[in-house]
Write a structure and sequence with these properties.
Helix content is about 45%, strand content about 20%. Strands 3-2-1-6-5-4 form a six-stranded antiparallel beta sheet, sandwiched between helices. It has a six-stranded antiparallel beta sheet with strand order 9-8-7-12-11-10. It has 23 helices and 27 strands. β24 and β25 form a beta hairpin. By secondary structure, it is α+β, with helices and mostly antiparallel strands.
């Protein structure tokens, strides 16, 4: 490097004057240094320095510690500060030497400087020949360099460099102060920003606190409502007043409504209303159709609920009467929220107010939470009521079953059936119609004492001319309105209509797949019987049918029992008429011999054949045999085989089942069965028809038989006493004259008698022509 030549003094000035002027300039820099920002400071300094230093370019380089580049602001003779600094690499640059050594450096001629450093190329490109590089340093930090450039070589002398060092010190101090002020201003700005943020956070905290308090109040309201719902114990009548009172503390309102959705009817029903300051514009029980209703429109547009204000209410008021009534009552704002459970829509909760814009979105959210709790409560309450109704129905069914089961008397049963219908239905008239298959008519009996005149007595009506007959014929439950009753076109239905009957419900009575009749309930109201009541009565009707069938069977059994009692009385009378020989009068040897034979054979169970002409007292002898036998306590049954028609003798002997033949309307017990453990007298046994003899033969041999038309074998223990005016021995000997079966039958009787005669003493005896002869077999 070349030595720095001395600076030329301006013409007309001494050396002292020159330095004095320089120091004055140096002092003038204090004011810009204290108050200028960096661009303005650099520009002011450049103007002042131009008066004392001859340079063509002034550059300010700022270097950050450990950085390999430097940001350089260059001001030319126009003293304009560029918008953006130039970033120069300082690797091997003289700028690095100055920053590192903290000493000034003067390059007298750049053209003579060797090396290809980027900084030198950049300086040469500016047209500079000589430069003076001075460090910008304060006590605390190294800021960078201050570069004076001249287009002349060796343009900076030692005195100028010393002056420039002082200028560089002041510039470094000014820049440091400026940076400190900027940092302080930045910190102040940050502090103001932090203060603003703190204020915003405080405001937000206050708002959040208020929001939390409001949310807490809402949650407390929800908890209070849940507690109120729990306290009502599924009582829907107590539920809504408690809920409305709790809800009013969180959401101010003047009236509240709950409209329940009726799935079966497809409409809304005003269930409850809480009036605080409103009139009764929507009374409880009011039905609101769903297809064209204000509620349907609201839910269609806002499925999650909404706030309906005056303008919208006035727009739809011409369509809906309830809206007009609400507006007339002063209710101009509604909060409407559906009450839904995961399974179904339960209803809609309405809160109404006389103030416009009375409800906010926060209120709407709270009402939604309340509506959800109400929906679950209402669903549980409705389910509980349904279960209670079902329980009551089952209790009624059990009570009806207990009432009808022991009722066997027909008259008492009618009274019990009337009581059952009164327990289930709210009706005006009731009657029982029994089906008569033989005449194809319905026998109608009144069940209530309040029946109209034409029901006071039993009457018979053709099946096609009464509702009960139509229901029985179609075998299904039928309900008749005024139009259906008029279509029947009969005197019976015309009289019903004339008494004010508007609904008749007929329940067919069927037992064992056979129609018994119908139970009919009548009312003077149209559509008087709801489906639930009809369903309950459907369960009662089978019990009524069974009770009627049991009563009918009981009547038949009682009739048969009476008949048996009469028959027994007759038979016992018959027995009493012939207790012993008191009716046999005579002392001849022949009669005495016969009575001795009776005494001989009576104690045994031997079959006895009594021979004798008509009128000789064969029946008296048979009674004497029975009276003196061990079967005297049993029945003595007699059958006159000649007096009974051929077609009825089999039935008389063996009995028959119900329906065995035409006219067999009930079961009949035969004489053989009646004589079980007793004695059966077959009078005129020789007159038994040929077709009956095989069955009689089996009964005589095996003591078992079947009733006519039956399949069950009946075993009997019967002593047979036969009587005839024919000579069976001769008939058996002359078997060619009779059928083989008859021959076997007579042989069975006679063989047993003849065998007994051969093996017993005096068991067979002859008598005079006019006295009976007894044959016996053990």
């Amino acid at each position: 490097m070349q030595e720095v030549p001395e600076r030329h003094i301006k013409p007309g000035l001494s050396s002292f004057d020159e330095f004095s002027r320089r120091y004055q300039v140096l002092l003038q820099t204090a004011d810009p240094v204290a108050r200028q920002a960096l661009p303005e400071l650099l520009r002011e300094l450049s103007k002042l320095l131009h008066e004392v230093v001859d340079f063509h370019s002034l550059s300010y380089g700022f270097h950050e510690q450990n950085a390999r580049t430097m940001l350089v602001y260059t001001l030319d003779e126009s003293i304009q500060v560029p918008e953006h600094p130039v970033e120069l690499s300082i690797e091997g640059s003289p700028l690095t030497w100055v920053v590192t050594n903290q000493a000034p450096l003067v390059l007298e001629d750049l053209n003579r400087e060797a090396g290809s450093v980027a900084t030198l190329h950049w300086l040469r490109s500016k047209g500079l020949r000589s430069i003076a590089i001075l460090p910008l340093t304060t006590i605390d930090e190294r800021l960078g360099v201050l570069v004076f450039g001249s287009s002349k070589p060796s343009d900076f002398e030692n005195g100028a460099v010393h002056f420039l060092e002082q200028i560089a010190g002041l510039v470094a101090l000014a820049i440091s102060n400026l940076l400190t002020l900027q940092a302080v201003a930045g910190e102040e700005e940050q502090l103001r920003a932090l203060t603003a943020v703190s204020i915003q956070l405080s405001e937000r905290s206050i708002r959040a606190h208020h929001a939390l308090r409001a949310e807490r109040a809402r949650l407390e309201t929800v908890l209070e409502i849940n507690a109120a719902l729990a306290a009502t114990k599924l009582d829907m009548q107590q539920m809504f007043p408690a809920v409305s009172e709790s809800l009013a503390r969180a959401v101010l309102h003047d009236t509240a409504l709950i409209n329940l959705w009726n799935e079966e009817q497809g409409n809304y029903v005003v269930f409850a209303k809480a009036r605080r300051n409103g009139s009764d514009f929507a009374p409880s029980g009011m039905v609101l159709p769903s297809g064209n209703s204000f509620t349907a429109q609201v839910l269609e547009r806002n499925p999650q609920g909404t706030i309906v204000r005056r303008a919208e209410l006035e727009a739809v008021a011409p369509q809906f009467e309830i809206v007009r009534n609400a507006l007339s009552a002063g209710i101009v704002c509604w909060c409407a929220v559906p009450m839904r459970t995961p399974n179904q829509l339960v209803g809609v909760l309405y809160l109404g107010s006389r103030s416009e814009d009375a409800f906010t979105n926060e209120d709407l959210d709270l009402v939604r939470q309340v509506a959800t709790a109400l929906a679950l409560f209402v669903e549980n309450a409705l389910t509980h009521e349904s279960l209670q109704r079902e329980k009551q129905s089952l209790q009624k069914l059990l009570e009806i079953s207990r009432t009808l089961t022991p009722s066997l008397d027909a008259k008492k049963l009618l009274v019990e059936i009337a009581n059952c219908t009164q327990a289930v239905f709210k009706h005006d008239h009731a009657h029982l119609a029994l089906y008569d298959k033989g005449t194809d008519q319905m026998r109608i009996s009144p069940l209530d004492s309040s029946e109209p005149d034409f029901f006071l007595k039993e009457t018979s009506v053709s099946v096609a001319e009464c509702p009960s007959g139509i229901a029985v014929r179609q075998a299904k439950i039928m309900c008749f309105g005024p139009a259906e009753l008029a279509q029947i076109k009969s005197d019976f239905t015309d009289r019903m209509l004339s008494t004010g009957v508007r609904t008749v419900c007929c329940f067919p009575l069927v037992s064992r797949n056979n129609p018994i009749g119908a139970l009919c309930i009548a009312s003077k109201k149209e559509n008087a019987f709801p489906p639930a009541t009809i369903d309950l009565m459907t369960q009662v009707v089978p019990q009524v049918a069974v009770a009627l069938d049991n009563s009918r069977a009981y009547g038949e059994i009682a009739s048969l029992k009476d008949r048996l009692v009469k028959e027994k009385f007759y038979l016992e009378q018959e027995v009493r008429d012939a207790l012993d020989f008191e009716e046999i009068v005579g002392q001849s040897s022949a009669l005495t011999h016969v009575l001795d034979q009776v005494k001989t054979v009576a104690p045994s169970d031997a079959t006895v054949l009594i021979l004798g002409e008509t009128g000789t007292g064969k029946e008296l002898i048979a009674r004497a045999v029975h009276r003196l036998s061990s079967r005297a306590t049993g029945n003595f049954i007699k059958v006159n085989c000649a007096a009974i028609p051929t077609g009825l003798l089999e039935s008389e002997l063996f009995g028959h089942e119900k329906g065995a033949f035409t006219g067999a309307i009930s079961q009949k017990i035969g004489r053989l069965e009646l004589a079980d453990k007793g004695t059966l007298l077959l009078d005129e046994v020789g007159e038994i028809p040929l077709e009956l003899q095989p069955k009689l033969l089996r009964a005589l041999q095996d003591h078992e038989f079947e009733r006519l038309g039956g399949t069950r074998t009946i075993h009997v223990n019967v002593r047979i006493v036969a009587a005839t005016n024919r000579d069976l021995s001769e008939a058996v000997a002359n078997s060619a004259a009779i059928s083989t079966t008859a021959c076997m039958c007579f042989r069975c009787i006679c063989h047993r008698c003849v065998s007994a005669a051969k093996t017993s003493r005096c068991l067979c005896a002859t008598s005079s022509r006019n006295l009976p002869v007894a044959w016996a077999s053990k």
